[in-house]
Design a protein that fits this description.
By secondary structure, this protein is of the alpha/beta class. Helices cover 38% and strands 17% of the residues.
């Protein structure tokens, strides 16, 4: 190896998919620190402790790659014959290769390649051993789906997953849809026990259908640790493959009428008093509310475990395993990292958990599955789409990391590099997935996570869609500024998205806000993903470009990570972030100056395009004008944040505010029964509906 250790370290990092530099928000190239590169390489399993180890580690890596006869995954688009890469030592270069393809539908294709078949793409020599790489074509078009190719070699057989997929994700035949957004925990009604549940979501859906709305969006409905105080962010779930029992609608459970002990619990004075107290809190108290609901659900799980629930358990080993994990957590401790060795490594014994607790956690997963499936079916009957959200990561102490530990890089966390909004960078605390192990497992975990959401959803939003390409990884103990990017096989992930979205007939939206590498949006266009057009972001350009709203976008005024429009317009978010220490005085002063410029530019634009007769101080009129502009645009989907319509000023979440702000807990100011008849709400939605239906002004 002629390269010096430092140069070889950079080459080694590149081979493992670790970027050795990135461009910051000012477009200045920032080289990665050697210790950060080493830490991420070590997390990936590379045998390198210091730069001096890099030459040998690079040689080992090359040997591993050239000894890999088939890539773990091969993609073919639109049923075209797959082009398979085969690496062989020179001693087998002329060997006749027999193969068989196990199709996803059970069929089998067989064939062989002679020694001189296929185009030679590369030859190399490592430590005196020669290798050849050929490109071989499987004959004939293969059906869409997942297929398993097996190649027979002397003394061994090697396999590769063949993904045959449409060229782009599913696109519905009914464009120009509109709908509303509200976090489910924030949605509450006279029947709520504090925060909202699936019954509340169903009522909102029926009401929206009366207004001809076609989209109902909320935040992730995945499980979080509601049984203890701590992190309740829907973007740091326990699992991406199960549901949050916090949202179970107890009142419509059929078994309730057959369980007198559960009914008696609900009639108790202390129970009613606690429910009333939770109902009147301005913030959702997850721990108290879940404890109240559990008193009933636990009794139901003990008294009535229906035939359907038993069938669900038999057909859902993941839910059964998850129930054991949650039960063990209650006996062994809240973090599995402190459990005894066997349990920590994924092996649970019966005395590690209480059987009744396991039964409870399995039962509530059954209830959520049943209720959410019914809600998704009802949405389709109403020609309406539930818009669900797939987070970019999971809680480091959660079920997925415990059960799928070899897929996660537990020595590093994901975040974002410093930018103008967060000059110190961000650490999102969840571990990234191992790119190559994910491939070696045939992307099973990613597919399961997708299918879990796609069953009830008509639209799925992919949080931080840049993560299909790369994630910013921070070694433990380091500041975000010391992180590096880790690359993924984006074409393979897009292929799975395309295939699964067609199977479920679900549209895909990619959250592409913030610092977006130049290759991400062209890839989204190529594979048919909808972008996000958020007016809050677009205003940063000064206003005139607001006229060009693309067609393949989900358009809205803001997102859950931004202040509502009234708070933004009045600069209250600037004051709040200043008080929280996220913004310093100089940064706040700059933002206030920029806000004045933005206000003038937007008002001028709305007047010039006839959405406002004259510039005004009436925030409601400005919001109606902005929503009318979006509704009349070419955008395929338009979402209205219901809180904007009653001039809410406080955000649902302030990123990087930690425990200083009650993120993910604030209830909507008005209950459903009240806001659904408020003139500012129904009047604005009527305008949006008319403009969407007209297709033009």
């Amino acid at each position: 190896m002629s390269l010096r250790p430092q140069g070889c370290l950079l080459r080694l990092a590149h081979s493992y998919g670790v970027q050795t530099a990135y461009y910051d928000v000012t477009r200045q190239r920032q080289p990665a620190a050697p210790d950060a590169l080493l830490a991420v390489l070590q997390a990936l399993g590379c045998p390198v402790a210091n730069p001096e180890d890099a030459p040998n580690a690079y040689r080992e890596y090359q040997q591993t790659i050239w000894n890999r006869v088939l890539e773990p995954v091969t993609v073919t688009w639109n049923g075209q014959p797959p082009a398979v890469t085969v690496r062989l030592p020179h001693s087998l270069a002329e060997t006749r290769l027999e193969w068989h393809l196990q199709l996803g539908d059970g069929g089998v294709w067989r064939g062989d390649w002679s020694g001189d078949t296929g185009e030679i793409r590369e030859t190399t020599e490592i430590d005196g051993a020669g290798y050849i790489r050929r490109r071989l074509i499987l004959p004939g078009e293969i059906p869409l789906g997942y297929h398993r190719l097996t190649l027979d070699l002397p003394g061994m057989a090697v396999e590769s997953l063949i993904i045959s997929t449409p060229a782009a994700v599913y696109s519905p035949a009914t464009p120009r849809r509109w709908g509303v957004f509200l976090p489910l925990y924030a949605l509450h009604s006279a029947n709520s026990w504090g925060g909202g549940d699936l019954a509340d979501l169903g009522r909102l859906m029926e009401w929206l259908a009366e207004w001809d709305g076609g989209l109902l969006a909320t935040l992730p409905l995945l499980p979080v640790f509601t049984d203890t105080e701590g992190e309740v962010s829907p973007y740091l779930p326990v699992s991406r493959r199960l549901w949050n029992e916090f949202y179970v609608d107890i009142n419509t459970i059929p078994e309730l009428a057959e369980c007198p002990t559960a009914l008696k619990i609900m009639d108790l004075a202390d129970f009613q008093k606690e429910a009333d107290s939770l109902r009147h809190l301005p913030l959702v108290d997850y721990q108290r509310q879940m404890a109240l609901k559990r008193r009933v659900l636990e009794e139901l799980s003990k008294s009535f475990f229906s035939r359907d629930a038993a069938r669900f358990a038999a057909g859902n080993p993941l839910a059964e395993d998850y129930a054991r994990f949650r039960a063990a957590r209650e006996r062994l401790g809240s973090s599995w990292r402190g459990w005894p060795a066997a349990a920590r490594s994924g092996s649970l014994r019966e005395d590690d958990y209480d059987e009744a607790t396991r039964r409870y956690h399995l039962y509530v997963q059954y209830l959520m599955h049943r209720q959410l499936t019914a809600l998704g079916d009802r949405a389709r009957d109403l020609d309406l789409s539930l818009c669900l959200d797939l987070p970019a990561g999971v809680h480091p102490d959660g079920y997925d990391v415990w059960r799928e530990g070899d897929l996660f890089l537990s020595d590093i966390t994901v975040g974002a590099p410093p930018d103008t909004v967060f000059p110190q960078g961000q650490n999102w605390t969840f571990p990234p997935l191992h790119p190559e192990r994910l491939r070696e497992h045939g992307y099973r975990y990613f597919i399961e996570s997708l299918r879990h959401h796609l069953r009830p959803a008509g639209v799925l939003r992919i949080d931080h869609v840049m993560g299909l390409h790369r994630l910013f990884c921070i070694p433990h103990g380091q500041e975000p500024s010391r992180g590096v990017y880790l690359r993924y096989r984006a074409d393979e992930l897009y292929a799975i998205l395309a295939l699964e979205s067609h199977r479920s007939r679900t549209a895909i939206v990619g959250e592409d806000l913030g610092i977006v590498p130049g290759y991400v949006r062209p890839a989204m266009r190529k594979y048919g993903l909808n972008r996000m057009y958020i007016l809050h972001y677009e205003l940063a350009g000064g206003g005139p470009e607001l006229a060009a709203v693309p067609s393949r976008v989900l358009a809205a005024l803001n997102t859950h990570d931004m202040p509502p429009f009234a708070g933004f317009w009045q600069g209250k978010d600037i004051t709040e972030r200043q008080q929280l220490g996220i913004l310093d005085d100089a940064g706040a002063a700059t933002e206030r100056k920029d806000l004045i410029k933005t206000q003038k530019a937007l008002l001028s634009f709305l007047k010039q395009t006839d959405w406002l007769a004259e510039p005004t101080d009436d925030i409601s009129a400005i919001i109606r004008a902005c929503l009318a502009f979006l509704a009349a645009s070419r955008a395929g989907m338009v979402l209205v944040n219901l809180e904007d319509l009653w001039l809410e000023t406080r955000p649902q979440n302030i990123p990087s505010s930690s425990s200083r702000y009650p993120s993910w807990r604030r209830k909507a100011r008005y209950p459903f029964e009240e806001f659904c008849t408020m003139p500012p709400v129904v009047g604005t939605l009527q305008i949006v509906n008319e403009l969407r239906r007209a297709g033009k002004r």
